[in-house]
Specification:
Two copies of one chain form a homodimer. Chain A has about 220 residues and is mostly helical. Chain A is about 60% helix and about 0% strand. In chain A, helix 3 runs parallel beside helix 6. Chain A is globular. The termini of chain A are far apart. The interface between A and B is large, with 62 and 63 residues. Chain A binds a DNA duplex (30 and 30 nucleotides) through helix 1 and helix 2.
DNA sequence: TTGCTTCAGTTAGAAGCTATAACTCATGAA
DNA sequence: TTCATGAGTTATAGCTTCTAACTGAAGCAA
């Protein structure tokens, strides 16, 4: 990042982008754990250790991909408009996840035990959280404020400056939709014949309507 | 499995168990993706290719570990008693997950794209689903049946012979608790100071009470 | 234009991994 | 006692990440 505008800088940036492109292809087909620097180098036309001119190693490449994935999700959220509601965000999230399941898992899936995300990615992640919090801070279109706006007793002051009620809403938004999405993308619903999209929509309804929505039959929508 | 009662059979079974023991240690510390057959062999006192006398390869070993993990969860559910309610099961699930997060991820985490679970594990998995369905079929202790008992329109007949309402309940039980658990275990809540256990308990409340429970402040319980 | 520095890319190689092949030798059964 | 089975070995192929040392070209300055 921050390549200078010199010819060499432009070249570097382009090759870096090309490498990441190939990496994404590999991840989409075989998952992040099967990502091979040698295979990427072969495909780009470089020979092995040349990749280390562009990335310090496999970890740095993956970190860069994680950051790109976060940025991609942030951009998708941003494209929904600054005043997007939770329903829009939920729709965007599902589309983003289904568009490249392995990218979703790269961000929200099983973490590598030793790996600690650098400050960069937590920054980007908190930006996404901010978008979500904004949507959750906006009052619901219908009726009075739902009662799940109670503050979180876990700490004296939440890290984000959002109302505790919005944080609570954002949290359940995140966990419930991730619960459906991750199990769906992992294939845990195959065999049980129902449409995960309906379950997702039902959970979204439960999130947005004052009454839970769990009582609604899945035939809705 | 199905080792004969001969001396050699007993020895084989014991070495197999010892290998799996070491594998679990490795997984607990470094995750399943970092599992190394050579390292296991070294630790067991065998030298490299000797492991292939006991497991056809890395994949078969991991498959066996996945089956063991499923069996472990099934046993934990079973130990809660045949008439255990969803609250008990939720408590057992959380304890099982926190006891060995990597084991949880091995079962419910990011799948290997090429890998397809053999019939064995789906059988064991459906047994667990049956336990959960039993708990969800039992009527709620308080008040009338919640309205989320509506059937799933996704298919003509559900694969399990359970009432569609119970299946619906079991599904949201699974997705909501997995949503909290997986994000917690993956460390996505670190930094935001609140107690994931409270969020888990709140989601469980929402699952068991007729009113959603989302309106309850997290200070409960 | 000449010269020099920087850097992209190369080959060679170390250390690790999964997995196979071929061999030795002890165990267990006839 | 004979003999087949099989547990464990070393050697090896082929893959991986990553380091070291070298080559040669691109870009900059005098």
């Amino acid at each position: 990042m921050a390549e200078p505008a010199t010819p060499r800088g432009r070249y570097r940036a382009q090759v870096r982008a090309e490498i990441k492109e190939c990496a994404w292809e590999q991840i989409a087909t075989a998952g992040a754990s099967a990502l091979s620097l040698n295979a990427i180098a072969r495909q780009v036309g470089l020979s092995g250790p040349a990749l280390y001119r562009y990335f310090a190693g496999r970890d740095e490449l993956i970190t860069e991909l994680v950051k790109d994935a976060y940025r991609s999700l942030g951009a998708a959220f941003g494209a929904a408009g600054p005043g997007a509601g939770v329903a829009e965000l939920a729709h965007v999230l599902r589309g983003w996840a289904l568009d490249d399941p392995q990218r979703y898992f790269l961000v929200f899936g099983t973490p590598v035990p030793g790996y600690h995300a650098p400050g960069d990615v937590t920054t980007i992640a908190s930006e996404i959280m901010t978008t979500l919090l904004d949507a959750c801070t906006a009052p619901l279109p219908d009726g009075p404020e739902p009662s799940h706006a109670a503050p979180l007793p876990g700490g004296p002051a939440p890290p984000h400056a959002a109302p505790p009620a919005a944080l609570r809403r954002a949290l359940t938004f995140w966990t419930r939709l991730h619960g459906v999405l991750s199990l769906e993308l992992a294939g845990h619903f195959t065999g049980m014949d129902f449409d995960p999209a309906l379950l997702y929509a039902a959970e979204l309804d439960a999130l947005t309507c004052a009454d839970d929505g769990r009582d609604e039959p899945l035939t809705h929508r």
